[in-house]
Specification:
97 residues, mainly alpha, signal
């Protein structure tokens, strides 16, 4: 339970940190696609093989069976969790001015 809570906190902090970035485009991009010419040199003839397939018969049924299963008890505990404060890139830039 503690590991799960810590994992959730860290994942949330990471997502918040990534979404709080201030992004500015500093340069335009360009992609030049190469051009190709293809000449047909021979006529093709494709004959695919044929198959007769007999699929298996599958039956799905249910049956009742008594098994032993563990039970889980819960209790309340106060634990210390990390707190994360995030200053966005935009807020940082505004603070410098």
């Amino acid at each position: 339970m503690l590991k799960t809570a810590l994992a959730i906190v860290f994942i949330s902090a990471g997502a918040l940190g990534l979404s709080a970035c201030d992004v500015k485009k500093t340069q335009e991009g360009d992609v030049t696609v190469p051009k190709f010419e293809v000449n047909k040199t021979q006529e093709g003839n494709v004959t695919l093989p044929k198959y007769d397939v007999t699929p298996p018969t599958v039956s799905v049924t249910t049956t009742d069976k008594t098994i032993t299963v563990p039970t889980v008890k819960t209790e309340e505990k106060t634990i210390e969790l990390p707190k994360v404060d995030v200053v966005t890139g935009k807020e940082k830039n505004e603070g410098k001015k």
